[in-house]
Amino acid sequence: QILSERLGKGSKTVDLELEAKIEILRDTKRKYENLLALSKVLANHFTNIIQTQKVLGEAFAELSAKSQELQEEFRYNAETQHVLSKNGEKLLTAINFFISGVTTLCSKTMDDSLLTVKRYEASRLEFDAYRNDLEMLNLAPRTEANILKLATAQTAFNTNKAMYDKLRSDVTVKLQFLDENRVKVMQKQLLLFHNAISAYFAGNQHELDAT
Amino acid sequence: QILSERLGKGSKTVDLELEAKIEILRDTKRKYENLLALSKVLANHFTNIIQTQKVLGEAFAELSAKSQELQEEFRYNAETQHVLSKNGEKLLTAINFFISGVTTLCSKTMDDSLLTVKRYEASRLEFDAYRNDLEMLNLAPRTEANILKLATAQTAFNTNKAMYDKLRSDVTVKLQFLDENRVKVMQKQLLLFHNAISAYFAGNQHELDAT
């Protein structure tokens, strides 16, 4: 069936609405995975920043202890870097929570639906093969052998149609649930991500005013 | 003279106070260079952060345009990353200004003083060699040849003592000026560095409140 479809022979069952939804899912997954990759890069760079701020804070503190005439100037810079690295850890935790949430959505929830999609696509292929067989036999002369073959083909067609219909319905239901779940998860994650960043800047500003 | 000093023979002129000041300068330079290296690492990581925030902001914006049900959530995250990368550029400029100021202090101002220190140290070595020559001749029997040698040695001693005294005074004056300059430069740079960071966080908090 794959071969005859590739050669443009044999007809193909197409559920345009469902196909479109599957394509949207695959596209959404690609986009979220891109978001994930960028968030991981951000978390990575941010880890480096926090590490550097820690060491820089210590260097400023040491210079503050050893330079009488610049004690104060080195001190407030030491405190600044200390505050930033401390609050940075909290933001990093939040970024990692976002990464973990979106990873689960992509690698578990979406992949689970895409597995059902794959089974549905395989079943569509089998169903079309049996459907095309049946159609050919229907056009063949009604010899006794062909009538027997027709009965077998009809049974196979019925079984595969039931399986295909079942999987198509499964996919439709799964995609519906997935979409509701995705919106709920992303609404929460995107809000937390934004709030964590706002809290980081507000907290830093508040504490820096005291240095 | 280097050789006899290494072997523990021949006396050595030592200005304890000046030697201590020179040692402090070398130590301060090492510490500031460490600060510089850390600031450059910070600037580097921060450049990476800004780049990632830009790309992440664009990814959020694209998702906002294409996801009706999460338009708002993606939008405010796009704006957040946009604000952060924009204000980050300003902070990066300030960090680079700090780096440039401290680099000038270390590589030009301090190095200039250390060059005078090196010339002073070389002149001290030469002066001590002529001084030890003169002392040896003073202990030698007063033959006519030795009296002639003594006169030559005395002239060489006087010339080199004058040179050594001049360079010692040069170093003393340079170190004094350098110290005043260093404190002035670092006071300014450390204040600007701290204020730039505070401004970055205050500005971000202010703009994030609007997202």
CATH structural class of chain A: Mainly Alpha
Radius of gyration of chain A: 30 Å
Number of domains of chain A: 1
Q: Number of helical segments of chain A?
A: 4
CATH H-level superfamily of chain A: Arfaptin homology (AH) domain/BAR domain
What is the CATH-assigned architecture of chain A? Up-down Bundle
Q: Any idea what the shape of chain A is?
A: rod-shaped
Biggest β-sheet description of chain A: none
Structural category of chain A is mainly alpha
What is the CATH topology classification name of chain A?
A: Substrate Binding Domain Of Dnak, Chain:A, Domain 2
Percent strand of chain A: under 5%
Count all strands of chain A and give the number.
0
The helix content of chain A, as a percent range, equals: over 70%
Largest interface (C-beta under 8 Å) = A-B, 46 and 46 residues
On the 0 to 100 scale, the average pLDDT of chain A is: 93
Distance between the termini of chain A: 73 Å
- State the order of secondary-structure elements of chain A, H for helix, E for strand: HHHH
Unreliable stretches of chain A: none
Assembly annotation: homodimer
